[in-house]
TrEMBL record:
It comes from Phrynocephalus forsythii. InterPro entries: PI-PLC_domain (IPR051057), PLC-like_Pdiesterase_TIM-brl (IPR017946), PLCXD1/2/3 (IPR042158), PLipase_C_PInositol-sp_X_dom (IPR000909). One of its GO terms (molecular function) is phosphoric diester hydrolase activity. This is Phosphatidylinositol-specific phospholipase C X domain-containing protein. Pfam families: PI-PLC-X. GO terms for biological process: lipid metabolic process. SMART domains: PLCXc. Residues 21-189 form the Phosphatidylinositol-specific phospholipase C X domain. Gene3D superfamilies: Phosphatidylinositol (PI) phosphodiesterase. It comes from the Eukaryota. The lineage of its organism: Eukaryota, Metazoa, Chordata, Craniata, Vertebrata.
Amino acid sequence: MAAEGSHADWMGALPPALRALPLSNLAIPGSHDSFSYWVDEKSPVGPDQATAIKRLAKISLVKKLMKKWSVTQNLTFKEQLDSGIRYFDLRVSSKPDETGQEIYFIHGLFGITVWDGLMEINSFLTHHPTEIIFLDFNHFYAMDNNHHMYLISRIQEVFESKLCTKDSVENVTLQSLWDKQQQVLIFYHHPLYEEYPYLWPGNKMPAPWANTTNVHKLLQFLETTLGERAKHGTFHVSQAILTPRVKTIARHLVRGLKNTLVHRNLPVILNWVKSQKPGVMGVNIITSDFVELVDFAATVIALNSLLLEDNKS
């Protein structure tokens, strides 16, 4: 298992030459549907699902099967952070029949409240002041402006002065953030980002999605989108994930995502990661499902040593 605590301070341990590089040039491990380690079978099906699924889900067995396809991580936020994960892919929703403004993580089924997740992340950051994280709020469901205002106020309440204010991406280095004691970059894929100095626009965190079950098509897609990566101005997410189609789920209903797609293909994906190089036109953030099944985070972090070789030459 790769989920050891040995990478809890990996950013702080990087050599001075790398601390001065833009974070967009470093190799940073991330997780896909980062919050989905726990989903609530007893909750209603989320507004991110089609009406037909919602009808089917009235049968209790259906929700048990949904869970097998909704869960894409085994580790909690803290365990992911301890293992070196620094980018979190977040989808959030209100519960349509619930009074109040509470917001939950969601992937087919509802997860924990966003508040609880952010508190867990903040506690880690307080104990590891050299570590920087990216929180990418990229899907919102059943949320009006009041829900957004509530969520944004919660983000501010939890992280306070740790929030990194918007800047040009090239200016954001580990050293510059340490100097300001800022640790959290929030990407908010909604027009409201314009009104807050600490909400970065979603277009600064492009995460092209292959949407395939074929690992060779996935790797080809990752190469193509890296080749098109803009030289300046954004971070970049390589989503090293396979996406089940409806027929994939129907054929392997009981086996679930991990046993159907992930176990078999992760070694091939990891080999692709090992062959990459970070830098202006190279990889930046790489995300995976079930990050502990292989030595994913450590493999991505190790790519940064290639930047040192560049420096020497």
